[in-house]
Amino acid sequence: MALSRNAKTGLIxxxxxxxxxxxxxxxxxxxxx
Amino acid sequence: MSAVVDTHAHGxxxxxHHGGYGGIMRWITTTNHKDIGTMYxxxxxxxxxxxxxxxxxxxxxxFSPGLQIVDPDFxxxxxxxxxxxxVFGAIMPAFVGFANWLIPMQIGAPDMAFARMNNWSxxxxxxxxxxxxxxxxxxxxAPGVGWTLxxxxxxxxxxxMDLTIFAVHLLGMSSIMGxxxxxxxxxxxxxPGMTLMRMPLFCWTWLITGYLLIAVMPVLAGAVTMxxxxxxxxxxxxxxxxxxxxxxxxxxxxxxxxxxxYIIALPAFGVVSQVIPAFSRKPLFGYASMVYATSxxxxxxxxxxxxxxxxxxxxxxxxxxxxxxxxxxxxPTGVKVFNWVATMWKGSLTFETPMLxxxxxxxxxxxxxFTGLVLSLVPIDIQLHDTYYVVAHFHYVMVAGALFAxxxxxxxxxxxxxxxMYDEKLGQIHFWLTMIxxxxxxxxxxxxxxxxxxxxxPDYPLMFETWNKISSIGAFGFGLSQLLFLYVVLxxxxxxxxxxxxxxxxxDSLEWTxxxxxxxxxxxxPQPDLR
Lengths: 33, 531
Prior knowledge:
Shape of chain A: rod-shaped
Largest sheet of chain B: none
Oligomer: heterodimer
Distance between the termini of chain B: 32 Å
Mean pLDDT of chain A: 89
Helix content of chain A: over 70%
């Protein structure tokens, strides 16, 4: 299914937000301080 | 603000049709950006009142030294919830309300890019607000940790803390979805010919704010999630008892917290950048430099966070870096203030209520910026950290900055939204009461802070009594003045005189030049060709 231009933009932005959220927790959980 | 023209009942064309539902179901199921903008604005006003009552409890207790009205635990809960509700429940939703109302109209779009998600973004908010309020009724009450939710206090609080963490999660989800919607709308739905550099500055400030929100709200969500796992799942991110580091929480929080200041301030800059040219009857001076200055402020906001925590014991090189980076922000901010003043220079100025609030913003926000510069200097900040000087500083930024701009925006666009004029005389009285009582409340707090009065205390030595008495009197005057604002808005909606098509002759963005007053329920379908 082809994604609309809006859906593509929205997904890119949502993945940036998800990367910040999970990246932060993983950094301090897995890699320690 | 809820009086968008609705001629559905009279069988007019589809432009005025609001779908199959009426009454409350219209508002629950709406995907119309104007309806959702209206709901955001009313929600934010209700939260402003709730947070305002909490502020009055704080000021009533501080009217005299000693403990009179509330116990210290409850006082701490008041300061915490006042901050959380005002930042996340009042100011942020207010500007999202403006964004919903104005961005599609200003760029020539029919609606927001994700209309259903827009509905969801709003309807999360009342549940988050309810969680914050319910936390007062849990064993131990609401958290009394300050709006910054610092560890290790957060690890020790009762179940109210968990509700607050969930509320922050919900508020964060709402903000992230809202900003994804705004950024996508601006990038993809502009009318043909509406290039980025032709957009009104309000849209530019929100585009940049949207990126800021997407970058930092997940950081706050991560921080409170880690607090939650420290509380219930045996981790020790911030709990020193298990080898964690409470200062790590402060770093993560302020990595979110300082951009958050600009998340609030930038849309306020956008509103003022619409109002000042309209009442100066001149185009905005230095449009391109305003865009670049806004971007520069946003970028710099990511590298200054530790100026909130000079006293935790960081190396001098760290202090110097954050001090220089913070003072650097004065440059793009100065560009903006210069441009606003230059816009007014030799303009054909009139001072209706929106312009009065914009000028009040300009004067008081600049004052707040100057005290921010004072606090950015390490040797001074170490003296003033956690004193009432800081309280005075951020209220000049948050209230005189964001709230004054919001008032300017409401008075400016009320005729466009409702098709009716507000009472100009009452609006001006509202401005002067707000201006006077704001300064009575907060200007004296600089002196209390310089004399050494700590923040977040219910009791204080006798030497601070005079400043506190004046501040408390001002706070009650300020609070009562806002009831006049509610009256002016309700009077406008119910019985305001019919607004002319273009009540502000200097206004030149699309909602004024391409749409009737009041705006129809559906606009810009098809989109206008602006090439």
